[in-house]
Amino acid sequence: MTYLCTTNHSLVMPQQIIGSRIIYLDRVSSTNAIAMKLLEEHSYPEGSLFVARHQFAGRGTGINTWESAPGKNLTFSMVLFPDFLPVEKQFMLNKMVSLALHDFVSDLPLPAAISIKWPNDLYLDDKKLAGILINNIIQGDTLIRSIVGIGLNINQDVFSSDAPNPVSLRNLTGKEISLDRCLTELCEHLDRRYEELRRGLFRRLDQDYLQRQYRRSGLYPFAFQGRRILAGIDTVDEYGRLVLMTVEGETILCDQKEIVYLTGG
C-alpha cells in the first residue's frame, strides 16, 4: 500500500470543513480501514479525506462488499468530529451524508429518478449508484469521531461482481466525467449538509430524508422476518428505524438488515 499526503486547498473553498485536507491513496483494501489506522498514528483535521485510486475490498453494510474498478469511481472516507451530536441521534450522520449525495447527483442531467434507499444507498430508478458505510467511535456518552466511507460509481462501464443492480453515471450519460470535479462539487454539498447538522437543523434533515426515500409513495412488497408483506413507508424514526405501515394497518419497525425490498406487486 502506498499513499500520498497533500494539503492542496485548490479543490475547496477555505471556509469549508469537508476537504480541508486530502490524502490520496494508491491501492488499499478499504478507505475506512486505512483512515482508522492512520488516525491512530497521526493527527488530521476534521473534514480530511482519504481518497483511493483503487479500493479492492471495499465494504458495505453488514457483509456486503463494494466493487470499484481502478481509477474509475470515487471511493473515499472522510473524518468528522461530531461531538456536538447526541449519541442517540447518530443516525443523523447517515441522513446528512445521504442527502449530500442526493443533492450532488440531482445537479446532473440524468434520465432517471433519484432517491435514497434506506438506510443510506443512492438509487436511480431501481439501480444502485452509491453506498455509505459509517464507523462511529463513542466514549461514554460522546460521539467523538466518525469515519464516513463513500462509494460513488462514476466512470465504470461493466460490473463483474454478483451485486444485483449497480449503475454508474457513465452508464446513464454515456460520457466520461472528471473525478476531480465530482469530488470538488460533492465536498461542497457535504459541507453544506454538515453545517445544517452542526446548527441542529434536525427537522429539516428529517423531512428532506423522508421526502427523498426510495418507494416513498404507494404500497410495495417487502420481506420481514421470514414473511412477505405489502406495505408503505410511513417514516424513519429518531433511532434510524424504518417504519412501515402494512396494507392491513399493522405498524412495523425495522432495524437494518431486518427488511428486504422485493420486486413485483
List the helices and strands and how they pair.
Elements lengths: L2 E4 L15 E7 L2 H11 L7 E7 L2 E2 L5 E2 L7 E7 L10 H16 L7 E4 L3 E4 L2 E13 L2 E11 L16 H5 L5 H20 L3 H10 L8 E5 L2 E10 L5 E5 L4 E4 L4 E3 L4
Parallel strand pairs: 2-3
Antiparallel strand pairs: 1-2, 3-6, 4-5, 6-10, 7-8, 8-9, 9-10, 11-12, 11-15, 12-13, 13-14
Major sheet strand order: 1-2-3-6-10-9-8-7
CATH topology of the largest domain: BirA Bifunctional Protein, domain 2
Number of helices: 5
H and E order: EEHEEEEHEEEEHHHEEEEE
CATH architecture of the largest domain: 2-Layer Sandwich
Distance between the termini: 48 Å
Biggest sheet layout: 8 strands, mixed
Q: Work out the oligomeric state of the chains in this entry.
A: single chain
Q: What proportion of the residues form beta strands (DSSP E)?
A: 25-35%
Output the CATH class name of the largest domain. Alpha Beta
Query: Which structural class do the helices and strands define?
Result: alpha+beta
Number of strands: 15
Please provide a written account of the structure.
There is one protein chain. Helix content is 23%, strand content 33%. It contains five helices and 15 strands. Strands 1-2-3-6-10-9-8-7 form an eight-stranded mixed β-sheet, sandwiched between helices. Strands 14-13-12-11-15 form a five-stranded antiparallel β-sheet, with no helix packed on it. It has a two-stranded antiparallel sheet with strand order 4-5. β8 (121-124) and β9 (127-139) form a beta hairpin. The chain is globular. Residues 1-13 have low confidence and may be disordered.
